[in-house]
Amino acid sequence: MPKHPPQSLSSNAMVPPLAASPENEDSVNTKSSLSYEETDAATKGVVSLLTSLVNSVMAPFNKPGVDNICIGNNPALESLTQFSPRSPQELLERIRTDYTERNYLWTGNIDLACFDEDCRFKDPTLSFVGRNQFVQNVQNLQPIVAAIVSQEQSLLLDIQLNEQQGYVQTRWNMVGEFTGLFWKPRLDVVGRTKFWFNSSDTNGSPDLSYSVYFYDEEWEIPAYRALLQLFVPAK
Fold it and tell me: What is the pLDDT of residues 44-65, one digit of tens each?
């Protein structure tokens, strides 16, 4: 069980920032990274506004709910395992697959069975609660990404399990060419994510299942610098 669980929050709502959980000594990466709490209000405001705008424009074309999400060329749920992981190690391997096979940093195609319905998602620019909200954000953004981005990669640099503290931590590199824009910018961001998990029994089963209740993503550059990459032609 995690020693530093986040506060309980209602689903599908923007939430105030929380204090970051303390890093363990055997962390995946010793380099400094920047969290939601450290991002300036202007950058968070811009991203929040753009997310709301995209959701408002694209919502009429997409039916809400997990059962209707379609990411890339394949319905997401057809490729997802239906049952939650039965061990922390299985959870780690399924998170690994999200990077190496599903390219989830770009597609959003995560193994939904690994995440609580009321999981909290946080990166340096957004913080919200609810797996369905994550699905909605991805579903609405994906057609835009597919139209203007090419050679996109979710490179997994490292992945480790800290079973005592209750999280899987990854370090990754998100790279993509925005060839659909005439100035052809390139996004190149290195970051790390902690997937904090809980265990529970399922329908009275003697076997425990494990699922992520807090997705905590940080970047190794300030959020505004990552966004500025989209306005500068690639060298």
Answer: 999 999 888 888 887 766 654 4
Q: Phi, psi (5° rounding) for residue 192? A: -145, 150
Each residue of 129-165: pLDDT tens digit? 999 899 888 888 889 999 999 999 999 999 999 999 9
Q: Model pTM? A: 0.80
Residue 136 one-letter amino acid? Q
- Cα–Cα distance list, 168 to 58, 112, 114, 152, 158 (Å): 33, 16, 12, 24, 11
Positive or negative, the Cα torsion across 24, 30, 33, 37?
positive
